[in-house]
From TrEMBL:
Species name: Coptis chinensis
Alphabetical keyword list: Membrane, Phosphate transport, Transmembrane, Transmembrane helix, Transport
Protein name, per record: Phosphate transporter PHO1
Single GO cellular component term: membrane
Membrane topology: Multi-pass membrane protein
Length: 780
């Protein structure tokens, strides 16, 4: 049977861990009571151990009867403890305080236990009250946003001459008077001043229709509301975040036009609300409802788990103290807000009804797919195939190693063309497989340490990959690659026509690309398309709004510059027909090839630089500019190293490589440790680490810091002059590229650990979705 402490740790919400009942500390307090009681019983036994009287059985029976009367008498039970509540603060928050009866008055351990129990109850109750108020206010805001959206959709359909009206009375399903989200709420973002009234719905529609008539039939101007005196008061504005290149360019041009040509205080009626904006607003509101409903579910889980924790710990206390304080204290817990309040339950039902009606065409099953996405169940077949492909990979790799040794592939006498043409193709696949394997290890470690990576990356639980899925992709992919390498060596040893044999890597590449873009729902289509979208967002930086998964993936690309160079060699190898002519010097000596090499070496750092610039433009934080400087220094170092590789005899370029790489390395190490990992904090209670740690053993972090430091310095190998042949240089480059990927996989865990701890510190367990409609005063 699983202990409740482990069950609680497995089920609690990671981001709210500090707000849960500290069950483990309360268990320690109960153990103190147990030890104190055992010590008292032992002393009593020693004092009366001088002999046994013939009246001892009568005395024992009398004690049992007295004990039962104390344990089961209602009046005496009330005398054990008395929980008092008082209201404090402007919000009249309930604070609970326990008074001990005469039986416990001299027991310091019992007093300490109930003081800690009161602290935990007040903490849980106050946290629930704050989160409940937050979600109720958000629900009220969403209701108003949805009401505006339905009005606009109705007007557009009316102007198009349709008879079908999308307008429905939201108040029937989300009533203002009965909804718990609206009672006692102080939300005032979308309401007017107290001494002014907002025109009714028909007046609003009239204003919007007038704006329609002033514009074209497919766009709506922002509506200018008026007060009773006829003065303009506020206008409704539709703000869609500039998350795509078109919106970004439009926003920048509009901003420049306002600043350079027009008066900044332009009339809101010149802004157009197009059908595309309405559709975007609907998606934003739908996503906001999904997150709100998820928050309700988390609050329910929070309430139920804490209730069980209070029940369990009070039972333990009763068992140790041999009293019955459970009933008295548990009645107070049940009357507290986090148990007695039903506002979240009612509002959750109302959100289900609204979402089903407005976003699922009254199809409840479809609505529940959005509101309650179910993670796909782990199949034992996945585990079986992971083991199968792992065995196949190891067997084929052993065969390949023996064939390579027999054929003398890695000797200087072997055909140089193999290392210049075919070997880079297979090296590209090997580096990609290594990165996938390390990502699978990251997923396993994040899951083991309760890091909510799906929430951090904003992945859907129903389609997100698990570590077994990643291992399956990795092992199957690597099995195919090594199998192709074995077939290639066997055919070459049998003297088959070289232009036929050397087409094998190309066939493997075409199959891989075809599988990546395959439109059929096979082999993790949602993940493949998500990957392509992220790559698109990176390639078009800074025109797409940068989210965490975008710059996280771009960071992976900065460690895959050798892979990108291998891709360049592969493209040249096939597009120039080198696999037929075997004139591999065509690519190496081409000026275009060398110029493209510079571009490829710069691209990952350029993308990250543009992402930092976009984040600074959106957030205005100077840290993003400082981070941008890190990638600029890395870009300069990469260019210097590439030039030195082309001109290894130049002492000037050697000096430039050492200087630029040293500056970039120091910059990167500082950012790794201080910003990305959050360690090297001199004021931390954990020496040179941070206050909150996932692992209990601090030595793990010190070893990881040293490991990252060493792997950041592998570039030194490239500036040391060693007399190596072509084969040795290729193997060395592959080995150094593998070390950088290993460093990146190691870095990934601590980067996400720091992000998770930041969410825990802010109790951020639900994404805040920006809302489209905003009311502006006449001065805006």
């Amino acid at each position: 049977m699983v202990k409740f402490s482990k069950e609680l740790e497995a089920q609690l919400i990671p981001e709210w861990k500090d707000a849960f009942v500290n069950y483990w500390q309360l268990k320690k307090n109960v153990n103190k009571i147990k030890l104190a009681r055992e010590k008292t019983d032992l002393e009593t036994h020693q004092q009366h151990n001088y002999g046994v009287s013939i009246f001892e059985p009568i005395r024992y029976l009398f004690k049992k009867i007295t004990s039962k009367s104390l344990n089961h008498g209602d009046d005496d039970q009330r005398d054990l403890i008395q929980v008092n509540s008082k209201s404090v603060g402007e919000n009249e928050e309930d604070i609970y305080e326990t008074s001990l009866g005469q039986l416990f008055s001299k027991a310091d351990e019992v007093r300490e236990f109930f003081e800690k129990l009161d602290v935990e109850l007040n903490k849980v109750n106050n946290f629930y009250r704050v989160r409940e108020s937050e979600f109720l206010n958000r629900g009220e805001t969403l209701m108003k946003q949805l009401e505006i959206l339905v009005d606009l959709k109705q007007i557009i359909n009316e102007r198009r001459g349709t008879n079908h009206l999308l307008r429905t009375d939201i108040r029937e399903s989300f009533p203002r008077s009965n909804s718990p989200s609206l009672r006692g709420s102080d939300y005032s973002e979308c309401v007017s001043d107290a001494d002014e009234t907002i025109p009714n719905a028909s007046s609003n529609q009239h204003d919007m229709i007038t704006a329609l008539e002033r514009n074209d039939a497919n766009s709506i101007g922002s509506v200018r509301m008026k007060t009773k005196s006829g003065k303009p008061k506020m206008s409704m504005r539709l703000d869609i975040p500039a998350t795509t290149p078109t919106r970004t360019v439009t926003a920048v041009i509009s901003m420049l036009w306002i600043d350079l040509v027009n008066n900044p205080k332009i009339d809101g009626s010149n802004d157009f609300i197009t059908r595309n904006k309405i559709e975007s607003a609907e998606k934003m509101i739908r996503a906001a409802f999904v997150e709100l409903y998820r928050g309700f579910g988390l609050l329910k889980t929070y309430s139920s788990l804490n209730m069980v924790a209070f029940t369990k710990i009070l039972k333990k206390f009763d068992k140790v103290a041999k009293q019955q304080a459970l009933g008295s204290y548990l009645n107070v817990v049940k009357r507290s807000q986090f148990i007695s309040s039903d506002k979240v339950v009612k509002l959750g039902d109302e959100v289900e009804s609204i979402f089903t009606k407005h976003f699922a065409n009254n199809d409840r099953k479809k609505a529940m797919k959005y509101l309650r996405p179910q993670p796909h169940k782990a199949s034992h077949m996945i585990t079986f195939f992971v083991g199968l492909f792992t065995g196949c990979f190891l067997t084929l790799f052993g065969i390949y190693a023996m064939l390579a040794h027999v054929s003398g592939m890695f000797s200087s006498s072997f055909e140089v063309g193999y290392m210049e043409t075919v070997y880079p193709v297979f090296s590209m696949f090997a580096l990609l497989s290594l990165h996938l394997f390390l990502y699978g290890c990251n997923l396993f470690m994040w899951k083991s340490t309760r890091i909510n990576y799906n929430f951090i990356f904003e992945f859907s639980q129903s389609t997100a990959l698990k570590y077994r899925d990643v291992f399956l992709i990795c092992t199957s992919f690597m099995t195919a690659v090594v199998g192709a390498m074995v077939i290639h060596l066997i055919l070459r040893s049998r003297h088959i026509a070289p232009h036929h044999v050397d087409a094998i890597p190309g066939v493997l590449l075409v199959v891989s690309i075809g599988l990546l873009i395959c439109p059929f729902n096979i082999f993790y289509r949602s993940t493949r398309y998500c990957f392509l979208r992220v790559i698109r967002n990176i390639a078009y930086s800074p025109f797409y709004k940068v989210v965490l998964v975008d710059f996280f993936m771009a960071d992976q690309l900065t460690s895959q510059v050798p892979l990108l160079r291998y891709m360049e060699s592969t493209a040249c190898y096939f597009f120039t027909g080198s696999f037929k002519t075997h004139q591999y010097e065509t690519c190496q000596s081409s000026r275009t090839f060398k110029e493209v090499a510079y571009v490829i070496s710069f691209l990952p750092y350029y993308w990250r630089t543009m992402q930092c610039a976009r984040r600074w433009f959106d957030d205005g934080e100077m840290d993003h500019l400082a981070n941008m400087g890190k990638y600029v220094s890395a870009m300069l170092a990469a260019g210097a190293k590439l030039t030195f590789a082309m001109h290894p005899e130049g002492r000037l370029w050697w000096s430039i490589v050492v200087i630029t790489s040293s500056i970039a390395t120091v910059y990167q190490l500082y950012w790794d440790f201080v910003k990305d990992w959050g360690v090297l904090n001199t004021k931390s209670k954990n020496f040179l680490l941070r206050d909150d740690l996932i692992f209990k053993k601090k030595s793990i972090y010190y070893v990881s810091i040293a490991f990252n430091f060493v792997l950041r310095l592998v570039w030194v190998q490239t500036v040391l002059h060693f007399n190596m042949g072509t084969v040795e240089c290729r193997v060395r480059d592959f080995f150094l590229a593998s070390l950088e990927i290993i460093r990146r996989g190691h870095w990934n865990f601590y980067r996400l650990e720091n992000e998770h701890l930041n969410n825990v510190g802010k109790y951020r367990a639900v994404n805040t979705v920006p809302l489209p409609f905003r009311e502006m005063d006449s001065d805006d």
